[in-house]
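Subject: for your reference before the review

Hello V.,

The reviewers asked for a structural picture of the protein, and I figured it would be easier to keep everything in one thread rather than splitting it across files. Below is the amino acid sequence we used in the manuscript, unchanged from the supplementary table.
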Amino acid sequence: MDTSTTAIANELGRLLIARKMTLTTAESCTGGLIASALCAAEDTPLFFGAGFVTFNYAAKETVLGVHAETLKNHTAVSQQAVTEMAVGAIARAGAQVSIAVSGYAGPEGGEDGTPAGTVWFAWYLSSSDIVCECVHFEGDCEAVITQTTAYAVAGLLELLGQSARA
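And here is what came back from the structure prediction:
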């Protein structure tokens, strides 16, 4: 794991602990790497209790409560899908904050023509609005997953008013 991602995860963990907040994750294309980065941080059990990896449509529906209509009309790689993933993760984990990601890490993109490297993010603080963003990363599948993980963790830290993105 990238040392900068570990450093950011440590900083995020300290901030969440200080604010008495817990975090959950809803991951697709990263396959649990965000949760893994959080587990490498100090005092993880004090700020991170559950993470969900939902790679296909059925898992997103069953585990996180993403609506079938959302997936049919917008695909899993969409603002609508990551929003529902973020909300579903908080509802199931009882956390105050969530990170959700869904994208095409590669080597192929989506059947709808969305290119590989496209990732949607949602950061949800249960006391405020959901912030969504779509980013296109360059590189092979592994590089996209690594960049997505770092961006997701740094993005939440930035949203909470701390450090800038990695």
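For the response letter, the relevant points are probably these. The mean pLDDT is 93. Residues 96 and 127 are 8 Å apart (CA to CA).

Happy to draft the paragraph if you're swamped.

O.
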